[in-house]
Fold this sequence. Notes:
three-stranded antiparallel sheet; alpha+beta; 4 helices
Amino acid sequence: MNGERRLLTVEEVRRLIGKDRLGRDAAYALARQHGVRLGKRLLVPSRVVEALLEGRLEELEKAPGPPPRGR
């Protein structure tokens, strides 16, 4: 791995994008829809953040993948 973190916390995502551009509620909604839960932690894959910044988030939503799990 190249040293880049593959999973980010919601607050890390907000810092990367800009807290003035991505509110707390929207960040948690993004994490619930596209993130993973490890124990009680809700984490966002870095590829989701990259797709969001590049305007490709819809492509991730349409891509086949495992069915959503959890609550």
